[in-house]
Structure prediction request, 507 residues.
Amino acid sequence: MSLHASPLITPQDVYERERLAHVHPETWRNPTPPERYQLVIVGVGPAGLAAAEMAATLGARVALIERHLLGGTCLNNGCVPSKTLIRTARLYADMRNASRYGAHPPAEIEVDFAAAMERVRRIRSHLGGSDSVRKLAAVGVDVYFGNVQFTGVDSLTVNAEEALRFDKAIIATGARPHIPDIPGLREAGCLTNANVFNLTELPRRLLVIGGGPLGCELAQAFSRLGAQVTIVQDKPLFLEREERDAAQMLSDAFARDGIEVRLNTRVTAVRVVSGEKQIDMVSDDYHSTIAVDVILTGVGRLPNVEGLNLAAAGVGLADTGGIRVDDHLRSSNPRIFAAGDVCLQQQYTATATASAHIAVRNALFGGRQRMSELIVPWCTYTDPEISHVGLYVREANLQGIPIKTFTIPLHEIDRAVTDSEQAGFVKIHVRERSDKILGATIVALHAGSMINEITLAMVAGLGLRTLSRVVHPYPTQGEAIRCAADAWNRTRLTPRVRARLRRWLSR
Prediction:
């Protein structure tokens, strides 16, 4: 089976027809190009959409070109469908764990996977309307569908027919799933985020190759929906970038959900025997085989640069295979910039959008805004969530930055206790002998929302001294942030300060 042509076809229900009408209507006809555009944007994922909307709002003549579907990975087979499915999966987990909240679990919990996937299609269709072709056209963006090839430093063609010339261009073609080179995998077939949301039947046994954010999120979701899930990670740790205590808490959650995690394990071959997939694995010198029904891979992404004829435009590639850009997101052709996953190491929707804004300012207005100046948080949307912003301790140590860490376990926070969500923490790193925040990690049910307060403080240059004065509604789990700031305040009470306070109070 081809890795790029799944036999799984999304049901063409009313929601799917509505989505396609938003993101690539069958009756759409490309406009007649003018003599020249001020900005041409290639690729219509989060970065391309953000760039087009910003440039059009500022009055530029903008062309937007997409080969397949508007919205890119995020809308069609990334953030939107995955978070929708994760929410349904958490509902089933809460039903099974009802006794934890003083309630009786339902006598029989029957997962309706088809209904869950229909909800994915409904929500995806609804959100697709926010960035539809007609809405873009209404704000003055010329939308083209087709394959792009650059023909010069300031020109390209769409479908080898329409010729467009531009003053500036932004390449925002995103990235696609990387398929590991495992003997037999191609023949056996596998899913990626590009086609996993086409499933209409829950796989009974699921193997997830890769212990990164994508693999962890979908492994937990499918497990809670009733699949028997195994994660195989060829490294000794999963979520290797995160703090070890954060990853351990997620490992404990996986164990409670019945997920089998095999670390430091490599898949050596895949075979199809009597209709089931036999997976050969090796861990150190130990060889084993398991049988599964479906394989899902989540081992990284590859930038989409093929077929663009970048050489004709004078655009060079980085060692990663993506477009090489400087800190201003300018390529080796000063007319052409790049944004999003096609050029960035941090492949997050929020980063793609932020980079698009930088690229537009720098391209159209000669700006000098730097990508390195951004403070970017991220989150893995498991249960509990793991969010982070800024430096990790190991990074600070490598840079020779003296660091002090303040950790507040959630079991000390009243709202976490009342929610029965004590497994987690807020950890904030500051420069030693100051209150300057260098980074933070949060493990909590809604860590992705909680990290925003710390990110704002870092962007605004506010330290823990200021955060200690922020009044939070009681009770919330966000109080853990203020408690960390209070812990920093207590370190200022040196013996000399304490003595002065005692003298003052004894007056």
In short: The radius of gyration is 25 Å. The mean pLDDT is 93. Residues 38 and 167 are 5 Å apart (CA to CA). DSSP finds 17 helices and 21 strands in the chain.
